[in-house]
Write a structure and sequence with these properties.
- By secondary structure, the chain is α+β, with helices and mostly antiparallel strands.
- The chain is built from 19 helices and 15 strands.
- The longest helix is centred in the C-terminal third of the chain and has 19 residues.
- It is globular.
- The model has no long low-confidence stretch (mean pLDDT 97).
- Bound molecules: ligand G3I and ligand 9MR.
- Ligand G3I binds next to loops.
Length: 567
Amino acid sequence: QNQPLSTNIRLNQVGFYPNAAKVAVVVGDASGEFRIITPDLKKTVFKGKLSEARQNAISGKTARTADFSALKTTGTFVVLIPGLGYSYPFDIKPHVHRAVAVGSLKGFYYQRVSTDLPARYAGPWSRPAGHVREDTQVLVHPSAVSDGRPARTVLSSPGGWYDAGDYNKYIVNSGITTGTLLALYEDFPQFCQTFKTAIPESDNAIPDLLDESLWNLRWMLTMQDPADGGVYHKLTNARFDGMVMPDQATKERYVVQKSVTAALDFAAVMAQAGRIFKPLSRELPGLSDSCVTAAVRAWNWAKKNPDQYYRQNAMNEAFDPDVVTGEYGDRDASDEWIWAAAELYVTTKNDAYYTAVNLFPDDKMPLPSWAQVRLLGYYTLARFEKILTPRGRQDLPQLKKRLTGFADELIRDVEKQAYQTVMGKSAQDYIWGSSAVAANQGIALVQAYRLTNDKKYLRNALTNFDYLLGRNATGYCFVTGFGDKPVMNPHHRPSVADGIEAPVPGLLSGGPNGNAPKQDKCEGYTATSADELFIDASCSYASNEIAINWNAPLVYLAGALEALQSA
Ligand code: G3I
Ligand code: 9MR
């Protein structure tokens, strides 16, 4: 049967639910018949015809789809296109995405600061604790000494997750990340009871998703200045480390200037955590109240300092040492106000938060990202529709209309796309961290499904999950440790420095980025089309870094699919 493996057949390399859609994309000229066949190429279980050719709106390349949704038989198969070859193998089975859900949440464990990762939990990626001096030796950067305290004040700020491929910790990015993980818990509490990741806390009475989130929440709490309730923008080295293991990264650490965006993201997450941990007061005495108090203090600080944006460049001219690590700069906090107001309102039921901010300043429905958190507030209001005060209830029809309207916009014309995914209808989707665009679009669709019970939203959410696991123009599975052609060389310091060939598993690569060659100047880009501008090289931090704010929506999407569509 001399058929070769063909990487022109692009599909979710992990697999498919028996009762859900199953689509592979074939790029190039192949047409006619396809078969689904056992990996030994002996037994055909399904025959079909490739679709008409469709043109990729971004690259102009031709593609066809092999739709075998009608096949519901469980097993391991490949797609065979006579004359072209066969695909990577995939499974059809219930709970087929449980492993990715578990693996991507476990990815956060590997990002933990201040703790050894023993082999028992980390397998071959075990490593000593990093940044242990954060227990006692974090310096207050001169940019943060605004209240007459002496320079070289030190504080304790251990724990949390490393942000990404670098080792710094940024409140803005921690905010959306933790908020997204906690949203999975609030939306699918039953599922989260059984969502186990084999972490040191797995045997306690608290779901692993909450234990993992607590690792970061506790760090976030240390970033609030007890004197005034303001929140430092980040905890960082002055400059990025070399590609070394965490325990070898021993540069001085600083907390820098407080910012309004950090304060509001912090307030939002603490308010959310306050209501989540309330029923767990036996296991976590006092935590819920501490979170709400911290949230209110951060909110009040923001009200007094609404114009205090983090301005890295301006700061660097004024202070020594200059700080050149990730900026997470944002000159518009109107969305952070919306998110914080919504979370504080739902937790406290106090209308004053609801009315403090214009929650619907315009018709826009911006996709969530670290710089744009408006919809996180809308999701929360919709999630708690049953317990809103009359004031909040007034806006519910409008809110639901917006959320479903946004979802309708996302799914419009998907059937005309070469890859039949929601992701990538426009080249604008391929920004730095485009994988999170795909995952956050998926979340928006899950939200619409929860509001309407209309399966079309769930079906379309799954197209983006398929995208992340291989049905895309690069042919890579963007989650480390999964699929047959996974990313192997992410810009991730432990993965580069640990001497193990396989990268740390469960981490989502940023993905194609139209501007990547200009931004990281890594050598090896050959593509010109935005959907293909990706290289699996560790120098490519603009297309192949990993980051917690990209992993969290992956955890959400995988978890939601498992919770909703496990048959
Ligand atoms: O939003 C604009 C979009 O409107 C425009 O069309 C497009 C074309 O240029 O650019 C978009 O902005 C880009 C933005 O990411 C999109 O989110 C910026 O050019 C780009 O520079 C920016 O990149 C950010 C990057 O840091 C550099 O600052 C990423 O969002 C952000 O995720 C990334 O975060 C880094 C941290 O700083 C440090 N730790 C690692 C982390 C991940 O790479
Ligand atoms: O490792 C850094 C990564 O986390 C950031 O996303 C990226 C952009 O800010 O910067 C990386 O660090 C690079 C630095 O910007 C320039 N010198 C090379 C560094 C990577 O080795």
